[in-house]
Amino acid sequence: MTRPNLVLLTVDALRADHLSARGYDRPTTPEIDRFAEANLDYTQAYAVSTQTREAAPPIVTGRWPEAFAANGYRQLDDPLPSRLREAGYRTGAFHSNPFLSRAYGYDQGFEAFFDDLYLGSNRLLALAQKALEKYVFDRGEYYARAPEVNERALSWIDSGDDEPFFCWNHYMDVHGPYHPPAERFADRSLSASESESLFRRSWNAPETLTDEQRTLLADAYDDELRCLDAEIGVFLDALDDRDLLSESLVVLTADHGELLGEDGLFSHPRRLREELLHVPLFVSTPEGATATFESPVSTLDVAPTLAESVGLSRNAMAGTSLLDDGVPRRVDPDRCVFASVAVERDQGVRRFAVRTAESSLRQERATETGELLAETQDGSDDDYDSLRTVLDEFVADRLGQLDGETPRVEVGSEIKSRLESLGYR
């Protein structure tokens, strides 16, 4: 049997309920809708965290966020890309999120790694990058946009021979600051400076925003999504034109969602809300399977799905493969999915959540003692005891992984500056 190509398309900060495929009242995602209708659609997919450094790495490793927190948020040893490369796959990654850069070890296992951030120790290149970053920031370009990511990924794909490949594109377009290249839903466009100013205020002092400014931010987010959707369609069509789509397992998902004024908050603060955890998840198989699943699944399921589809063992992966020899597995309607995140500016507290198809339970816990500091339930009170039991077990396992001092990774001023421009603190 010919081994399939593996294509992983992840979107930073894409909330599920703003896709027209999820019933949103704006036509934000016609291309993604088309992809969803023809393939496997998991309508109740949930992220494992709400911050990229804890939410994105589990997608490509199948490991819980605490494993990365305990490692200073660096990549772990023997990640899936390394195993795929050892198995004869070409491996390429294309993005511009600082938390997924070489500085944190995420080039491990990739023969081609474009992160648009890291030029090494060459002083002339570093100086040139500083000048370039000032230029692009002044123009409102805080990351490589989808057309550039697509171009680099397709160029790399075209440079290969008959070897199967693993291609990971991580799109930043709907991540703030929102400065869409075209407007469809907004009444007016935002200048680069206005976009950055509104974005900074939205996570520093959201209470100072007017109703008009809140609407501008939400409209700009939707405009970014519509533009990104078109580029995702371009990439998928390009694979199809090369006769590669039918030979590939394609996964499209997001690392986490986004708040657009709910509870007066914006961006993706360290909360475990539905808007931050509910993400899209679509899978296209070479066999052309089509189905819709409405039971809970997790972004932690992506890595074992990719690994098992090419005959690799799970090793230390958590999660569940969504496929069995290319055939969709039944999703357990009673399954519990989990999420966690460190609390803002306080490494001594973590938030944890469990949810089923009907209910959810959220807690704050002291990381050293496990003491319960706060708790919130949504759904039927009849589910509380069972949710509390499974969440207690999950918390104990995860806090056990954080025993000892967490190492810190020192990164350069350029990456720190880029992180701050994207709202990371």
UniProtKB/TrEMBL annotation:
Please report the organism this UniProt entry assigns to the protein: Halapricum salinum
The UniProt annotation puts the region (Disordered) at: 360-384
Checking Gene3D superfamilies in the record gives:
Alkaline Phosphatase, subunit A (3.40.720.10)
What name does UniProt use for this protein?
Answer: Arylsulfatase
Its lineage opens with: Archaea, Methanobacteriati, Methanobacteriota, Stenosarchaea group, Halobacteria
**Sulfatase N-terminal domain: from which residue to which, for each copy?**
4-311
